[in-house]
Please model this.
Amino acid sequence: MNGLGMKRQLELDSETIDRILEMAWEDRTPFEAIELQFGLDEKQTIALMRREMKGLSFKMWRERVSGRKTKHLKQRDFLEGRFRSQNQKGS
Model:
């Protein structure tokens, strides 16, 4: 990790770190959204997750998100929104 990336992570307060962890944990939130909102690229986000999570939790997360199309915008087969059944009410 370059010095700028480490400096960026050190500047994050606990509330921001919690939000990044939450977004990274969500299967449908792409790493690009975290980068856009917080300035951390995928490698920096993974490093933050490794640092902030217990070892087994991090390992389970990495296994779950590795290769998952929804974590990378370029691999998604949809652009935005969530699936909505035709039977579901809403606007």
